[in-house]
User: What shape does this take?
Amino acid sequence: MDNNGKFKDPFVSIVIPAYNCEKTIGKCLDSLLKLDYPQYEILVVDDGSLDRTPDILKSYNNITILRTENKGPSHARNLAVQKAKGDYIAFTDSDCIVDPNWLQELFKGFVSDKVAGVGGDQQSPDDETPFGKDVQDFMKMAGIAGDYMKHHETVVNTTHNPTCNVLYEKSVLLEAGLFDEKLWPGEDVDIDLKIKRKGWLLYYNPRAVVRHYRPQNPGSFSRMMERYGWAQGYLVRKYGSFRLIHLEPLVILFLLAALILPIIFRQIPVAIALVCFLFFLLPFAIFLMKTGSMKKALSYYRFSLLLLWFWNIGMFKGLAGKKR
Assistant: This one.
């Protein structure tokens, strides 16, 4: 028993939703099978994959395979939680590689009986592409403005941990009502909000590391940003605004309105100067100061434009109730 009256090294059920992930699922499972932890099971939910994912899963004898008909990651996770044997449920994604001490470090965040879940850091795999590493660095720097990625160096209280790297008490997940199956992505934000509103705490330990493959081209990055934006619009419709990131569209609209005033008063040079400053010089200068590299600053500036455009398109679609 530990100081909180709980069994040391409790049995853990590790859950991975899998859909068309033939390029990474083997790496994910190989890393999970090398965990330095005494007792755990691995449940992979094949969500109707059309590539070689089912065949790769069959080659592993020491995992549990569940199957669904492409109902999404939220449904897949809920199904696995209900089948899981462990009192704790760890989540990661099929495009992630976990460190050997991943579970041990996650458990270090359970510093009191009020802690319901603990998450960790995301880094680039060693064989990630240069584009993927740039995406990772940009996302780390920006944090996607919503607690998705963090910069803390010690165990800290947090409001949200993404499901690519998190460990929960199973009983708390069930108490919270599990994941919203109409929502993806953003289902992890939803479950964490429900958990926090029930009085539980969430923590983050930067030493609990997964190595996460990222989008491999601008098109994939843009689609990801639109999905993220749509999820936030959905959440605002469901709960009202509860994160600073939800105010971002209002800030953009305010800036655009401010740019219209010089045009109305026929101050075209002023409008051009404001556009150049707000949408190029200022963000580029910030990226240059943070990176110290002209090449990286230009790359991050491109990512920021894609993020703002596609995230806001998705956000307004979510607010309008349109399907993702």
About this structure: The first strand starts at residue 12 and ends at 18. The longest helix spans residues 294-319. Confidence is low (pLDDT under 50) at residues 1-5. Residues 45 and 111 are 31 Å apart (CA to CA).
